[in-house]
Design brief:
Layout: H1 5-60, H2 64-75, E1 80-87, E2 92-95, H3 110-116, E3 131-135, E4 141-150, H4 153-156, E5 169-178, H5 180-231, H6 246-305, H7 313-337, E6 345-347, H8 349-366, E7 369-374, E8 381-383, H9 385-401, E9 407-416, E10 421-427, H10 435-438, H11 457-467, E11 471-476, E12 482-489, H12 492-499
Parallel strand pairs: 7-9
Antiparallel strand pairs: 1-2, 1-5, 3-4, 4-5, 6-8, 9-10, 10-12, 11-12
Length: 501
């Protein structure tokens, strides 16, 4: 099964977005968590300072019941899960949980690892080092703050109990806060971030899929449909596209290619047709040439020996004239079948056209036809001058036949394709041709002249143009005349030498 480009692109972009947004969400959650921990730490320090101030009076007066009551009251807060006061030997003196009062807590306890695990005295630690987070047996996250109880002057000089003045720390206070409310909020934020990332990924993927489907996939299908049509032999169905993007340029180039293929196929079919007709024409011409020669000889002899008053003389003249016409047709058939490779030599197209004009100008003047030449000098090209002269002779004769009431014939010369080819237009002001006739004018034996011509002139001219690596084309509109264009290549080496003359 073919994998669509849109699906591949959506999957690739979706995965990239999912990974990128996931990383962004994770960073945001971690940043928020650090911020929350910082707020908890600051709040714990402030709460610890409040607890110490609340217990100071009762501890100075050795009011143990007052200390117990204060500890239990302060530990009854929503987020406070434990409050313990240790002496210097690690024995719990006061606690929010009466069950642990009087017990000795080992240094391996989770609440003690933060300080004793570092091996440094509590008094030498800054507040940030005396706070740590751990999980209890139920997996809940807890925040613990260890606050040292210093031996103040009021303590060492109190009448109730005397501590040596050189004893810096009397004990420590352990304050534990639950992080459960913050974890709930963090979990909500994490879920919202992941959901937002997922929704954003899906939306962007859908937008990309729609964009690719609208502007890529559909246009690729149009191209594929056109290619399938061409592969099926239909070269006349262009790809229709709009815009000025890459797909439009591909479609334009593809249409240009199919037009070239169509022209090449037409030329190939026409060449094959000419070859078949040429072989047939050669056979027919040779078969009828000998009896036709005898017929012309006998009719000529009979005409020469007949008396001018002989009533049969008019019939003999008709026989001789029609036999001569048949001979011209046979000659055209032989010329058509004997098309040879051109013998090319450097020559100027102006000289070839000039020789043809010398032949037809007198007849053109008698018919009221004026022949004009337009365009500057062209470089020399390699050509068979005699064959090209025959092409222009055919074109000019056809142009004069198309204007029985006189008119103007224009011969236009120009250099095209950056100097790599020349084009010569022969345009008449005749009646023109409809499209159905225009498509057949290069077919052998096809003629638009009623009772005149053999229909081989343009076929022979077309073959000569092809033999020179060029092209003979025509365009016409009824009532607007016809224009025949002969295109011939110019070799670069010859062009360079000509350009310097």
């Amino acid at each position: 099964m073919r994998q669509l480009i849109a699906v591949r692109l959506v999957v690739a972009v979706g995965l990239t977005l999912a990974v990128g947004l996931g990383i962004g969400a994770w960073v945001a959650v971690r940043s928020l968590e650090q911020q929350v921990i910082g707020e908890v730490q600051g709040g714990g320090i402030r709460l610890s300072d409040t607890v110490k101030r609340s217990l100071r009076y009762a501890m100075l007066h050795d009011d143990r019941e007052g200390v117990k009551t204060t500890v239990r009251t302060l530990a009854g807060g929503q987020d406070v899960t434990g409050l313990r006061i240790f002496n210097k030997d690690g024995v719990v003196q006061f606690a929010s949980d009466p069950a642990v009062t009087g017990s000795r807590v080992p240094t391996t306890d989770d609440a003690c690892k933060g300080c004793h695990g570092n091996g440094a005295p509590v008094a030498s630690m800054d507040p940030a080092q005396r706070t740590f987070i751990y999980r209890d047996a139920q997996g809940r996250r807890l925040f613990t703050l260890i606050e040292p109880l210093y031996n103040e002057p009021d303590c060492s000089s109190a009448p109730c109990h005397v501590h040596p003045a050189d004893q810096k720390i009397l004990g420590v206070m352990d304050l534990t806060l639950s992080l459960a409310p913050f974890d709930v909020e963090l979990e909500k934020f994490r879920a919202a971030s992941l959901a937002s990332a997922l929704v954003l990924t899906i939306l962007i993927a859908l937008v990309i899929f729609g964009f690719v489907h609208r502007f890529v996939t559909r246009r690729i299908r149009v191209l594929l449909k056109g290619m399938a049509s061409v592969s099926g032999g239909n070269l006349d169905q262009p790809i229709r596209t709009s815009g000025d993007d890459e797909f439009a340029h591909v479609a334009q180039e593809f249409n240009s290619m199919t037009r070239s293929l169509s022209e090449a196929r037409g030329h190939l079919l026409h060449s094959e047709k000419l070859a078949v007709v040429g072989r047939l024409a050669a056979g027919v011409a040779h078969e009828i040439n000998n009896p036709l020669t005898g017929l012309m000889l006998i009719s000529s002899n009979m005409l020469d020996s007949s008396d001018p008053s002989d009533p049969r003389r008019a019939d003999l003249e008709t026989i001789s004239r029609e036999a001569q016409r048949c001979r011209e047709i046979v000659k055209g058939l032989l010329d058509f079948s004997r098309q040879t490779m051109p013998q090319r030599i450097p020559a100027r197209i102006e000289g070839v056209i000039g020789k043809v004009l010398q032949v037809v100008r007198t007849q053109a003047s008698k018919s009221g036809i004026q022949i004009l030449e337009v365009g500057g000098d062209l470089p020399e090209i390699e050509m068979d001058a005699a064959q090209i002269q025959q092409v222009f002779l055919n074109l000019l004769v056809n142009a004069m036949d198309a204007m029985p009431d006189g008119g103007e014939i224009t011969i236009t010369r120009r250099l095209v394709d950056d100097g790599n080819a020349v084009e010569i237009d022969v345009a008449d002001a005749g009646t023109g041709m409809p499209s159905d006739e225009l498509h057949r004018i290069f077919e052998p034996f096809y003629t638009t002249k009623e009772g005149k011509g053999t229909g081989l002139g343009l076929s022979i001219s077309w073959g000569i143009a092809e033999g020179h690596g060029g092209k003979l084309s025509a365009r016409s509109q009824p009532g607007s005349g016809s224009t025949f264009t002969l295109r011939l290549p110019v070799k670069a080496a010859v062009q360079g030498s000509a350009a310097g003359t």
